[in-house]
């Protein structure tokens, strides 16, 4: 069984991945942030490093998805390969931070990879407003995230909503993290777990 958690920067994906993997006794697969050699450079100079960063993430997540299916284990995954392809790369291109040549190259590579991967059994989307995202980003205090612009987060949110509105690759669960404070509230986490259980029962 493969659960994946999607959401904008600061929406709580890593925290929910940890909490759900602990609850179900499943294996967590985290986004490669600490070991990513491009993040600092990207946030300092987005146009120069956007293509490098997106190729790094695409490679990392493709390997992750292949490993999940090959080992046939129960997994909770922090962020999906689809978010890179349908949200982050197109947004960088639209903002003029990735050239059309690089974006077309990236898109062709993703389309090739997409033919070899399987979607998660359940996708959990963490919906959050920009003020909630900013609060979470400030709370965790990653140095390379201090320069993220509000308009960048807003553009990502708009693309997330557009993607989720047409998502049809499998079961989908949407959590409003403006009102569900699962990192601090056991009751709110319990509500999510109950909803996940209901979805999983429909898969078995």
General description of the model:
It contains eight helices and five strands, in the order βαβααβααβααβα. With 204 residues, the chain is an alpha/beta fold. The chain has a single domain, classed as P-loop containing nucleotide triphosphate hydrolases (Rossmann fold). A five-stranded parallel β-sheet has the order 2-3-1-4-5, sandwiched between helices. The chain is globular.
CATH topology call: Rossmann fold
**Rg, alpha carbons:** 16 Å
Shape: globular
Count of separate structural domains? 1
Distance between the ends:
9 Å
What's the story with the biggest beta sheet? 5 strands, parallel
Q: Helix segment count? A: 8
CATH architecture: 3-Layer(aba) Sandwich
Q: Any descriptors?
A:
single chain; 204 residues; alpha/beta; five-stranded parallel beta sheet; globular; Rossmann fold
Short description:
This protein is of the alpha/beta class and 204 residues long. It contains eight helices and five strands; from the N terminus they run βαβααβααβααβα. The longest helix has 26 residues, at 46-71.
Topology of this structure?
Blueprint: E1 2-7, H1 13-24, E2 27-29, H2 39-44, H3 46-71, E3 75-78, H4 81-94, H5 100-114, E4 122-127, H6 130-140, H7 150-165, E5 171-176, H8 186-201
